[in-house]
Amino acid sequence: MTDTPLAIVVLAAGKGTRMRSDLPKVMHPIAGRPMIAHLLDTAAELSPEKIVVVVGPDMDVVADAVAPHPTCVQADRNGTGGAVKAARAALDGFAGTVLVLYGDTPLVSADTMRRAAGACADGAAVSVLGFRPSHFHQYGRLITDDAGALTAIVEARDATPDQLDVNLCNSGVMAFDGRHLFGLLDKIGTDNSKGEYYLTDMVALARADGHSAAVVEGEEDELLGVNARSDLAMAEAVVQDALRARAMAGGATLVDPGTVWFHHDTQLGRDVVVQPNVVFGPGVRVADGVNIRAFSHLEGADVESGAVIGPYARLRPGAKIGAGARVGNFVEIKNADLGAGAKANHLSYVGDAHVGAGANIGAGTITCNYDGFGKYETNIGEGAFIGSNSALVAPVTIGAGAIVAAGSTISKDVEVGALSIERAEQITKPGWAARFRKLKSKDKR
Ligand code: UD1
Ligand code: MG
Q: Are residue 192 and residue 300 in the same domain, yes or no?
């Protein structure tokens, strides 16, 4: 097989009507990226001579997402057979194996793709990747003869009751001997319940021309087709389970794996502990030995070793948490770095800021970084202590080792080692409360 050149055609022009969405079906995300991106990454592992994506006429968003892979436009969305025909110019003269993938079947492994393509390289004119799904109502059925040879694929809506009982289904992954592909495609008709050119007709057409058709079987988890939102949720569940397994295999403890949600690019180090109900958005890197406590939400964040995040912490894009630093409950960090050992343990917003090593951000501290027009920076020096319920009005700098008294609104720089208090002076009137109560109790009704 390795000697036979390979081209891959990905079908993505369908309208995805059953998704009931304004977004093209193949752009719906799984683990945070379009399903077609998952498929294309896997397809690239086969190192084909070319990968061509067939899109609809109004699908620039898909063309942009699949770049630099070239696209062909299927002007008239008249079925999966019509879609492969749209790639004719791109495959002109190609005599190797043409592997056709459906953009809505995004979880096929590289190994399974290789097996499907390999059957063609080994002599079949058509090879079909079949599977035996637990819910198979929507899939085309693979019809075999008494000798077990594949004779046809029948779509569920065109099948007889006997054919509907067949549980070997069409995953949509098919490979063709490029020398016969377009000749056979030209023979496809539209005599079916949808009046479309079905690619699946290629099996019967190949057999009628005296060619052989092969079946290769795969697993349900990697072959489920996404037609509706419920299928999308199933695909998400499969990918999340794989990402959880990857994190654990890499040395992270997930206390309750099913409640941790990953983005496809999440990186966790060794001996990271992730408590239940943690969500990772895009671009998170967590170094070794970090403890992420329950109900935290992280995106675009870099967390150095030994840091403790949460419970209930929110790290937003540009958060850089230094080694051993602590970000506690109801603390939001955005575009800010916390130096090693710095602490923001309770109820704070730290945005557009640099916080030096060992600094302590008291409960309820807010960096006031936005005036409705621009964003401004707060700089907090090493070892500074920001008292609780302080507002730091940016741009402002708190020098290293300085102390800001609790409840202060700081709008001028505080020099290194200074104390800054900004609040009304406290007045205490001895005995006043007791007198007040006595007076008032006389009038009480
Ligand atoms: C198709 C198969 C069915 C198989 C199932 C596996 C056909 C006729 N049926 O059914 O046997 O069990 O996939 O999931 O092939 N597309 C185009 N242009 C079109 C129509 C579709 O590019 O004109 C693309 C879609 O974007 C999609 C793929 O082809 O990625 C499959 O189309 P879809 O309508 O989802 O086919 P199914 O009904 O799922
Ligand atoms: Mg489909």
A: no
pLDDT in tens, 110-132: 999 999 999 998 999 999 999 99
Do residues 278 and 129 share a domain? no
The sheet carrying 419-420 orders its strands as 253-254, 273-274, 291-292, 308-309, 326-329, 343-346, 360-361, 385-386, 403-404, 419-420
Give pLDDT, residue 1.
Answer: 45
Determine the Cα angle at 384 with ends 424 and 324, to 5°. Answer: 135
Q: Is 78 in the pocket of ligand 1 (CB under 6 A)?
A: yes
- Whose Cα sits closest to atom 25 in ligand 1? 14
- Cα-Cα-Cα-Cα dihedral of 119, 79, 183, 128, to 10°? 10
Confidence of residue 2 (pLDDT cuts 50, 70, 90): low
CATH of the domain at 374: 2.160.10.10
Catalytic residue at 346?
Answer: yes
Q: Is 18 in the pocket of ligand 1 (CB under 6 A)?
A: no
Pairing of strands 213-217, 141-144: unpaired
| Catalytic site residue from 69, 211, 346, 354 | 346
Whether residue 116 sits in one domain with residue 241: no
Q: What gap in Å lies between CA 398 and CA 183, rounded to an integer?
A: 76
**Domain end among 197, 223, 249:** 223
> Angle at Cα 183 formed by Cα 214 and Cα 227, nearest 5°?
60
pLDDT digits (tens, 9 = 90+) for 254-275: 999 999 999 999 999 999 999 9
Domain count, the chain: 2
Confidence of residue 135 (pLDDT cuts 50, 70, 90): confident
Give yes or no for residue 17 having a pLDDT over 60: yes
Q: Looking at the structure, do residues 22 and 115 belong to the same domain, yes or no?
A: yes
- Is 73 part of a structural domain of the chain? yes
103 Cβ inside 6 Å of ligand 1 = yes
Ligand 1 pocket test: pick from 61, 72, 102, 128 the residue with the most ligand atoms within 8 Å of its Cβ: 102
The response to whether residue 82 sits with its C-beta less than 6 Å from ligand 1 reads yes
| Residue 105: how many other CB atoms lie within 10 Å | 22
For residue range 144-161, list pLDDT tens digits in order.
999 989 999 999 999 999
Nearest-CA residue for ligand 1 atom 31 is 102
Return the ligand 1 atom nearest residue 15 CA.
Answer: 26
Is the same domain home to 198 and 260? no
